[in-house]
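Example record

The entry below shows one chain as it appears in the dataset: sequence first, then structure tokens.
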Amino acid sequence: MRPVLLLLVVLLSACASRSSDVSLEPAGSELAALTWLSGSWAGEAGGILTEEHWTAPMGGSMLGMARSSQGGRQVFFEYARIEARSGNIYYLASPLGREPVPFRLAESEPQRAVFENPEHDFPQRVLYWREADGSLRARIEGVENGQARQEDWHYVPARLFRR
């Protein structure tokens, strides 16, 4: 019985350590083209530590979550998913566990994606892109109370993050 358990542990470990560039979506699909976003990311700015995690594309979706802490206390969290539906790709954001807000994929190129919802209060755009050094950038932007506003995050792979 122990060899079977050992084999199971080895197989699960191998699955858990898969590279984030693996997609279980059909090659060439718009969702598979977002595989570069998958993985565990971390960054710190202004004393706020943020981590963001994305699963690889599978079954028509990617699942994500983010949380931020300051002074050892959680100050924000968000559930998210990116999914193929009705012939388009949507980013669905659920900040603080609220009802998901959809943002349609408006621009996509290798290592960059822009999602938009011009009807939303703020943000109206959600952007992700990879830098040449392998880091991940994220930005939300739009107009709030008649003023242009944006928030930016810079992440490195979580395994490389050092405070």
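Notes for this example: The chain has a mean pLDDT of 88. The chain is about 10% helix and 50% strand.
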